Amino acid sequence: MAEIKADIAEALKDYGPDVAKIFLADGNTIAMRTEQQVEMLTAIKEAFPEVRQIASYAGAKFVLKKSDEDLKKIRKAGLSKLYMGVESGDPIILERICKGIKAEDTLAACLKLKKAGFMLSTTVVQGLGGKERWKEHAEETAKLLNRIQPNELR
Fold first, then answer.
1. pLDDT tens for residues 26-54?
2. H-type helices in 48-150, by residue range?
């Protein structure tokens, strides 16, 4: 936490307090313990009182480990937007790319985040099915996204 707070202080020095959007790069902050994440978000909001959006990546398997209560605490503390890599809705493709999670788990994680009040941006890798599974990739991904209803699709 000391290193994170030092990074926040350095960012404040470099950019000043009037920052509207912050992206917590190079990490999946949902994997942090909830108390640590709340402490970090509180420090960010104290340093940057004008911040309107704090965003981060979110891995589905880490989201599923969090309770609804923990996710609501994190949202209330200031994390507002999460980016999740869906990649594909096709189970064969997900296995081939070693995603480590099934489409159903991604769906559950996304719905959990939306229920907690997060803005959700999902990412799909176009062409991931190649010539062999292009149709399955397109159809299964569309089915999954229709169920997720993300705020953004990339």
1. 778 999 999 999 999 999 999 999 999 99
2. 60-65, 68-77, 91-96, 103-115, 130-148
Q: Rounded CA gap, 45 and 11, in Å?
A: 12
Taking the C-alpha atoms of residue 64 and residue 106, their distance in angstroms, rounded to an integer, is 9
What would the two tokens of residue 139 be?
């159809």
Find the length of the chain. Answer: 154
Rounded to two decimals, what is the model's pTM?
A: 0.92
Strand order across the 21-24 sheet: 21-24, 53-57, 79-87, 119-124, 152-153
DSSP state of 30: G
Decide if 56 contacts 28 (C-beta within 8 A).
yes
Please answer whether residues 39 and 15 qualify as being in contact, where contact means their C-beta atoms are separated by less than 8 angstroms. Answer: no
d(CA 92, CA 67): 29
pLDDT tens string 60-116: 999 999 999 999 999 999 999 999 999 999 999 999 999 999 999 999 999 999 999
